[in-house]
Amino acid sequence: MKKKIVLAVSSILALSLMTACGTKTETTEATTEVTTEATTEATTEATEEATEATAADATGEWTYGEYTYTGDDNVINAITFFLCDEIAKGYDASDVGIPYIIEVSRDDSDPDDIKVWGDYWYMTYNLEGDTLECQAGGNYPGCMHVKTTDAGCGYVVDHFDVVEDGSDFDESAKEIFGERYDAFMEVYSNDDLKEEKRKEFIADFVEAHKVPATKYKDYGWDPVDISGSSTENSENVDEDQYLGGLYANDGKSDINIAFFLIGGELRVIVQEGANYYYGEYTIEDVVLDDGNMYSEINVQGKTFGYQFEDEEETMGFVVDQEGNIHKALKLDESVAMDMKAETGLK
Questions:
Q1: pLDDT in tens, 84-137
Q2: What is the pTM of this model?
């Protein structure tokens, strides 16, 4: 509409120039006629624009602002800003883009290169009624390199090592995550954890910005209720997040291995008989003589191993401290939580 007004004004100027060689009366009449028409058109169109703007507001045009992180982790704040500023450039416009983060590990020993390994997501939504309908999205696993700002009053993402797609995924993931690769794959394959984190980030944003949404929805799927999912209105969802585990069931060994995500950090508990070993751990791949492979974990100076043998993680084997292999089945969550309560793992 603004273009039409500009064209009308341009026509006035052009006509004035063309009639300058004619009589004074003709020039005045032509200019008056065109000016009156342009003024009428401009006034009409301005009124239409105002009417359309009012109608748009009445139908619920997005007025809730862009995504902002509401937590107290300044490093995560820098990462969410990076996702919404840089990653968002690859997406079409929508009402709002909301990221979510599944952190695998963090090394903050160097304030000028804080490394955060994780699975990073960015999703776009349009608000339809009380539902945030997903338009597009994707995940970007890798390592964020965060540093203090030049002013020294905050953090900013310096660069991002992202895992490659397709056939190069596995190789690049191992290169970027290193000894954290197996821990990353556990998180990467945990759909329940992904959905819980997504709900948490959406609910926090909805709560902070007073967005009238009670659910979100992916195309072709049922809506997901987000009421009560905000970390401001509930306990930290990471406190009791059990990721999975195995227990030896061959009658020759008594070993339980349970993995948790607590406060955004991966933890393990190994119960061997009456003994418990738990907390932070390191992990690396071990190749057997027959070509099979398992993950070797070291926790509190003790070394064990495990391997899942199906995608559902219902069976596999565990390896004791002497290197003996024992068939194993999925460890029930109730047993894992009992182990957590027994050790007081935090």
A1: 999 999 999 999 999 999 999 999 899 899 999 999 999 999 999 999 999 999
A2: 0.55
Token pair recorded at residue 135: 């338009």
3-15 pLDDT tens trace: 222 323 333 233 3
Give the Cα separation of 124 and 218 in Å (integer).
Answer: 11
Check residue 35 and give its pLDDT.
43
Question: How crowded is residue 133: how many other Cβ atoms within 10 Å of its Cβ?
Answer: 19
pLDDT of 84 reads 94
Pair of tokens at residue 311 = 């995608």
C-alpha closest to that of 321 among 273, 266, 250, 258: 273
From the number of C-beta atoms within 10 Å of its C-beta (0-12, 13-18, 19+), residue 91 rates as middle
CB 81 within 8 A of CB 71: no
Please say whether the beta carbons of 224 and 199 come within 8 A.
yes
pLDDT in tens, 255-295: 999 999 887 778 999 999 999 999 999 888 888 777 778 88
Ordered strands of the 265-272 beta sheet: 275-279, 265-272, 255-262, 241-248, 325-330, 315-319, 302-308, 293-299, 282-287
Distance, in Å, from the CA atom of 52 to the CA atom of 217, rounded to the nearest integer, reads: 29
